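Thread amino acids onto this structure.
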């Protein structure tokens, strides 16, 4: 099952996903990009490999990288995030891909890893801004369950894992 989790920019999608991932009773992998603050202002994002806990700078407002909006996406951050997605898709039940943005709409950034995960992983949660959701779904040519509220995502994932446990217990 592929879930497309949408929301507005800087709406707390990644922070919620991080908190939710820690509470799920399932092997999770992939990447979650967490906000980095400097003097109370968002200054970038770090890419967290959900399976290993390793975090690497992903985007900053300055420095070297690929310019996307107000940020410079770091090549080593993209590589780290991509490895986490590939590894998650091959070894975990649930793979997070956070976040798909304008760079991926150009078939760059995390897009190759996203293509792989959507074909290989048992379950994926892809985070995307509302304005890019339809475009991403059409590019990927995959079926997605669209979720736009944190409560709905938590209920859906919790329900899936409870159903999986019940099926396993009946075998």
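Threaded sequence (171 positions):
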């Amino acid at each position: 099952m592929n879930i497309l989790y949408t929301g507005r920019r800087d709406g707390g999608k990644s922070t919620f996903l991080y908190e939710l991932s820690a509470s799920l009773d399932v092997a999770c992998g992939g990447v979650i990009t967490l906000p980095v603050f400097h003097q109370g202002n968002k200054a970038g994002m770090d890419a967290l490999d959900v399976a290993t806990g390793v975090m690497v700078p992903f985007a900053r407002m300055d420095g070297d990288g690929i310019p996307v909006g107000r940020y410079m996406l770091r090549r080593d951050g993209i590589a780290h995030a991509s490895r986490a997605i590939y590894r998650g898709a091959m070894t975990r039940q649930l793979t997070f891909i956070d976040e798909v943005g304008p760079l991926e709409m150009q078939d760059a950034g995390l897009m190759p890893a996203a293509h792989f995960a959507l074909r290989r992983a048992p379950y994926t949660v892809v985070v995307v801004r509302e304005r890019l959701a339809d475009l991403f779904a059409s590019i990927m040519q995959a079926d997605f369950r669209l979720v736009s509220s944190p409560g709905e995502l938590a209920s859906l994932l919790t329900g899936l894992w409870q159903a999986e446990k019940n099926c396993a217990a009946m075998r």
